[in-house]
Amino acid sequence: MQHQFLIIEGNIGAGKTTLSQMLAEDFGFKLLLEEFADNPFLPHFYQNPDRYAFPVELFFMTERHKQLQQELAQRDLFQEGIVADYIFYKTLLFARNNLNTEEYRLFQRLFNILNAAFPKPDLLVYLHRSADRLMDNIRKRGRAFEQEIEPSYLQEIQQSYFEFFRSNEQLPILIIDIEDLDFLNNPEDYQKILDLINRPYRPGLHRASFY
């Protein structure tokens, strides 16, 4: 694998954690997984987003920062490959979608302070699936607190990601349409994704589809 710091991103239910785990095992990379299950505000947020949006986003931001600071800021990235299933910037994307104007303005100031020191990934891979497919995956994995999610919310998150990708010229970003791929159970599908990831990419946005 020519990329030593990989980030696998995607909407809720896209399969980013599964792919990150597979890549870490196959290439001996350090695995960084988002610890979303420890957020005590998350179940309440899905039931009452207006009330719990700020604490849920603040908790996510501080926990992501703590984990990334421990694993990245004091590491030599050339000694061991790293694959993560989130980018710290997603903190701001979700906050923009969930917070009111005043809350977001405050949140953005805190984010900019915390984001300053992190190294940039060699490649950011975004796994794209339609909202319908994401809803299927969310139902299948059966996390109780996710069952309140609406397709419209997933569409809003997707739009936030795409706006970020279009405005970012510093990172190599690869969007892969994996709508009907089953890379967990189908080795050929997994190999297709590997072939795409293990290529050089210039900074900017790149798209790939198998259809």
TrEMBL record:
<dbReference type="GO" id="GO:0005524">
    <property type="term" value="F:ATP binding"/>
</dbReference>
<dbReference type="Pfam" id="PF01712">
    <property type="entry name" value="dNK"/>
</dbReference>
<feature type="domain" description="Deoxynucleoside kinase">
    <location>
        <begin position="7"/>
        <end position="198"/>
    </location>
</feature>
<dbReference type="InterPro" id="IPR002624">
    <property type="entry name" value="DCK/DGK"/>
</dbReference>
<dbReference type="InterPro" id="IPR027417">
    <property type="entry name" value="P-loop_NTPase"/>
</dbReference>
<keyword id="KW-0067">ATP-binding</keyword>
<dbReference type="GO" id="GO:0019136">
    <property type="term" value="F:deoxynucleoside kinase activity"/>
</dbReference>
<keyword id="KW-0418">Kinase</keyword>
<dbReference type="InterPro" id="IPR031314">
    <property type="entry name" value="DNK_dom"/>
</dbReference>
<dbReference type="GO" id="GO:0005737">
    <property type="term" value="C:cytoplasm"/>
</dbReference>
<keyword id="KW-0547">Nucleotide-binding</keyword>
<feature type="binding site">
    <location>
        <begin position="10"/>
        <end position="18"/>
    </location>
    <ligand>
        <name>ATP</name>
    </ligand>
</feature>
<dbReference type="InterPro" id="IPR050566">
    <property type="entry name" value="Deoxyribonucleoside_kinase"/>
</dbReference>
<feature type="binding site">
    <location>
        <begin position="181"/>
        <end position="183"/>
    </location>
    <ligand>
        <name>ATP</name>
    </ligand>
</feature>
<keyword id="KW-0808">Transferase</keyword>
<protein>
    <submittedName>
        <fullName>Deoxynucleoside kinase</fullName>
    </submittedName>
</protein>
<feature type="active site" description="Proton acceptor">
    <location>
        <position position="85"/>
    </location>
</feature>
